[in-house]
């Protein structure tokens, strides 16, 4: 996940995590169609296909990650506005400092709730 985010610099990277019982097992790298250093948008077709595959794998969407190449690990107002998956953890990876900072949130009705997350793999 962090490697993917670093690879996409200077642009924001984005992707999905899926798994069972709140444990993310699978990482799905997604295309940031905006190719922007301050925002991201997933391709709708790629998103639908990936969600279908997750279902076929009998997994659930557990997380949606994206990077902030120069910003802090907290959802931007735009992130909050476009957060349509209340069941998923929104993972934000800040690459503003040498050591990446990874934080998770639940975003429900524009409310941001910090989550305890544990990284088992980078
Ligand atoms: Zn963001």
Features:
122 residues; alpha+beta; Cytidine Deaminase, domain 2; 3 helices; 6 strands; 20% helix; globular; binds zinc ion
Question: Explain this structure to me?
Answer:
This is Proteasome lid subunit RPN8/RPN11. Residues 1-122 form the MPN domain. It comes from Aeribacillus alveayuensis. It holds the Pfam family Prok-JAB. One of its GO terms (cellular component) is proteasome complex. The chain has 122 residues and is of the alpha+beta class. The chain has a single domain, classed as Cytidine Deaminase, domain 2, CATH 3.40.140. 20% of the residues lie in helices and 35% in strands. The protein contains three helices and six strands, in the order H-E-E-H-E-H-E-E-E. The chain has a six-stranded mixed β-sheet with strand order 2-1-3-4-5-6. It is globular, with a radius of gyration of 13 Å. The protein starts with a helix and ends in a 7-residue tail after the last strand. The model has no long low-confidence stretch (mean pLDDT 95). Zinc ion (ZN) is lined by residues 66, 68, 76, 79, 92. Residues 66, 68, 76, 79, 92 line the site of zinc ion.
């Amino acid at each position: 996940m962090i490697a993917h985010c670093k690879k996409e610099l200077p642009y924001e990277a984005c992707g999905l995590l899926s798994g069972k019982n709140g444990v993310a097992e699978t990482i799905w790298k997604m295309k940031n169609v905006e190719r922007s250093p301050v925002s991201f948008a997933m391709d709708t077709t790629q998103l639908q296909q990936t969600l279908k595959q997750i279902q076929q794998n009998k997994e659930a969407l557990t997380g949606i990650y994206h990077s902030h190449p120069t910003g802090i690990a907290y959802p931007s107002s735009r992130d909050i506005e476009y957060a349509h998956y209340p069941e998923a953890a929104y993972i934000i990876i800040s690459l503003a400092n040498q050591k990446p900072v990874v934080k998770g949130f639940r975003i429900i009705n524009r409310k941001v709730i910090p989550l305890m997350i544990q990284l088992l793999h980078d």
